[in-house]
Amino acid sequence: MSSRKSSLPNRDSEDKYSILLPTYNEKENLPLIVWLLVKYLDEGGFSYEIIVIDDGSPDGTLQVAEQLQKIFGEDKILLRPRAKKLGLGTAYIHGMRHATGNFIIIMDADLSHHKEGDYDLVSGTRYHGNGGVYGWDLRRKLISRGANFLSQVLLRPGASDLTGSFRLYKRSVLECLVERCVSKGYVFQMEMIVRARQLNYSVGEVPISFVDRVYGESKLGGNEIVSFGKGLITLFATT
Length: 239
Fold this sequence. Notes:
Layout: E1 16-23, H1 30-43, E2 47-54, H2 61-72, E3 77-79, H3 88-98, E4 103-106, E5 121-125, E6 132-134, H4 138-155, E7 167-170, H5 171-180, H6 187-198, E8 203-207, E9 209-211, H7 222-238
Parallel strand pairs: 1-2, 1-4, 2-3, 5-8, 6-9
Antiparallel strand pairs: 4-7, 5-7
Helix pairs in contact: 1-2, 4-7
């Protein structure tokens, strides 16, 4: 993360940022990402809250989050766990309901993500400008590129990266979009961009460097790929 204040939209003293961190088996990554966020946001003088949405991680992620809350304070670290793994899309919706900021940032807790402008939504892109992907094997690159190519052909969303999960929303915009989105899991990210374009929201993109997770294994498996394909067909037929 850059230490420049300009990496977030122009703000006034009343702006508050809610960062949503869905977690599942991220006990090793969570302390580092939280520390980086707190360090950057405190140095920048931002008003913020970090909301951890843990889906019943069996590795003790929630217990680690509880310790982080004791270290950094309950005003900065909010814990909003769920009993079991219910999907990425619903995790963001759950976190949003507890957010108090007028800007909401969604991102992963696996340390994969290292614009100015008055946009309704700003999305990080790996596939435009100097954005890129580092540490992936050929299979993962083909899956990601293939998913984005099919999405571009079928949906014509006007955005270069539909499957990324590093985004900044105006709160009112996010609330409006989640009311209309029906997808769960990885398809949720894609549908959010498509619905935003349908509703004529302005979408900005900023290049990001996506680095493979520091600890643990990717949760992208066969079931997620099948679910993505079904979701893509559904969006093509209904949008």
